[in-house]
Write a structure and sequence with these properties.
The chain is an alpha+beta fold. It is built from ten helices and eleven strands. Strand 1 (about 15-20) and strand 2 (about 25-35) form a beta hairpin. Helix 4 runs parallel beside helix 10, helix 6 packs across helix 8 (about 240-245) and helix 7 packs antiparallel against helix 8 (about 240-245).
Length: about 325
């Protein structure tokens, strides 16, 4: 939890003016957007319009998050994180506050978006996420606190974006922020070491959460429990092999998981390994309807993914 001293010192009402000490940019606080373990985020109005400003007493945390945002901007074809606009200090007469201004991303949180648009969009969003995670991992960072609340879907052509990089950690270190449901340490299926497989476990749990919005608690045999939950959902079971590989730490990279997920989305085939299911074979008419649905989802996936890779989604 955020230190109470920081919380009090970083608590400002609407109308407060923040003047950057070094760059001389001026921001007016409009409203509070949220808070994390090391700072508070506000919607602010400045010379370039509306921005999101994160302020903190912890210069190290601010520097780390700024470095993450810069790394995200260097990932080709990526716009996962918000664009970084300004980094500065603010001396308010009592203390020195550290802050950075970033793009204010507007859109819908991932869970409400899927609830409105339908589960056929779940695979599309996860493919986008995995593509950017691969780039982030190659830059030496692990996202860490990956959960629906930190993800926004923006634009008329849906594109997944992140609104909080506070949990992002350098490879090899201990994950500094996590949410139990998405944490493999909580499930007893791995350590909290910052490595690609940690993010891929969280991605698998993220997909489960899209199909099971009401999160469940762990039981004694975590992997058996999660396997059963996957198999009990008629729509989710086709992703069983991919999900279990991610939950078991078998993928070496986000690219590997993305490629196998695309196989399932494109042809309804299962990647490496056998899939067991509790369902009897579908009647011919149902199989045909399922095939048509799969082809429709594939077309949407391919079109969106092509636009995403070549930068046509703004």
């Amino acid at each position: 939890m955020m230190n109470n001293t920081w919380k009090n010192q970083c608590n400002y009402p609407a109308g407060t003016i923040i003047n950057g000490k070094w760059h001389r940019h001026r921001y007016e606080i409009v409203r509070r957007l949220g808070s994390g373990a090391n700072g508070v985020v506000y919607l602010a109005r400045g010379s370039i319009g509306y921005t999101a400003i994160k302020i903190s007493m912890d210069s190290v945390s601010i520097t780390t998050e700024v470095n993450v945002l810069k790394s995200l901007e260097k990932v080709q074809g990526s716009a996962l994180g918000p664009s970084l606009y300004d980094v500065d200090d603010w001396e308010n007469g009592l203390s020195r506050i550290h802050f950075y201004a970033m793009e204010y991303i507007q859109g819908r949180e991932l869970l409400p978006f899927i609830r409105e648009k339908g589960l056929s969009w779940a695979g599309v969003m996860i493919v986008q996420l995995l593509d950017v995670l691969e780039g982030l991992h190659q830059k030496g960072w692990i996202f860490g606190d990956l959960k629906p609340e930190n993800l926004i879907v923006e634009g008329p052509t849906p594109k997944i974006r992140c609104i909080d990089v506070g949990g992002t950690t350098m490879k090899g270190r201990a994950i500094k922020e996590f949410t139990e449901f998405f944490d493999r340490g909580y499930w007893g299926l791995g350590s909290r070491k910052a490595e690609p497989s940690y993010d891929l476990f969280s991605t698998a749990m993220l997909m489960l959460n899209l199909y099971y919005p009401k999160r469940f608690v762990k039981k004694e045999n975590s992997l058996k429990q999660l396997t059963s939950i996957i198999q009990e959902n008629r729509d989710l079971v086709k992703f069983e092999a991919v999900l279990l590989n991610a939950l078991s730490g078998k993928y070496q990279s986000a690219k590997d998981m993305k490629n196998e997920l695309l196989v399932v989305l494109s042809a309804g085939e299962q990647p490496k390994g056998q899939r067991t299911t509790r369902y009897a074979p579908k009647p011919k008419k149902k199989r045909m309807r399922s095939f048509i649905e799969t082809v429709s989802i594939l077309l949407v996936t391919v079109i969106l993914y092509t636009l995403y890779i070549y930068g046509y989604i703004l």
